[in-house]
Amino acid sequence: MFTVTYAQLNAWLTAFLWPFVRILALVATAPVFGNTVVQIPTKIGLAGFMAMIVAPTLGPMPPVTVFSAAGMGILVNQFLIGAALGFTMQVVFGAVELAGGLISLGMGLGFATLFDPQSNASTDVLSTLLNMIATLVFLAIDGHLQVISALVMTFQSVPVDANLLNAPGWRTLAEWGTTLFAAALLLALPVVVALLIANLCLGILNRAAPQIGIFQVGFPLTMLVGLVLIQLMLPNMIPFFARLFDNGIDEMGRVALALRPAP
């Protein structure tokens, strides 16, 4: 007769549950995976499938029961690690959307908004467009697979443990958030500068010939200049996005190392 002891059942459960929670937290928060278009059962199934593959390679887990205080602490730790890694990649897409907002503001398209189901808020059309382009580039360069690979590697750098996570990890994540503004400014800078020059020219023209009616000419002109520059920038956006995604993957490893509990 086949019998299973409580210790064996607890070992099997912990070997699957704790990696599953870390993976599920990343799937729920990372770009593409965490999109609201992806149904919740799909996310859970994907996380469970990855956990079944990863769990046998992790070695023995801490000898604590799942529903004990230490077990709940480990569960919370795994959730926080996965959420921090997913948010690290979300910062990259946040930079892209912020760049679209800066360009829209300069073009006078700040009022043209669409409902974004991901953030449950209104987003300007250029931010949505740049976000779609960035998502296509992310999938084309296998960014989703790189995110999964980086997550699996964190099980070696940050093993499953009941110790508290290090505070420097959260500081590293906060400092990475400054990339949102720097990258957004770099991406939007050519268009913003060109629109600034166009507006200066329109202002000078308005002073020289007020009868032209600069307010009727200015809006379509700035929109035309912005659209032309965006079209010219498209070939250079792909390597720029790829570099941002590579930096995001590297930052995931740095955040994980900084979160590693002190021995």
UniProtKB/TrEMBL annotation:
InterPro entries: FliR, T3SS_IM_R. Its main location: membrane. GO terms for cellular component: bacterial-type flagellum basal body; plasma membrane. One of its GO terms (biological process) is protein targeting. It is found in: Cell membrane; Bacterial flagellum basal body. The chain crosses the membrane at residues 12-34, 40-59, 66-85, 91-115, 178-202, 214-234. Keywords: Bacterial flagellum, Cell membrane, Cell projection, Cilium, Flagellum, Membrane, Transmembrane, Transmembrane helix. It is a multi-pass membrane protein. Belongs to the FliR/MopE/SpaR family. Role in flagellar biosynthesis. PANTHER family: FLAGELLAR BIOSYNTHETIC PROTEIN FLIR. This is Flagellar biosynthetic protein FliR. It comes from Paraburkholderia solisilvae.
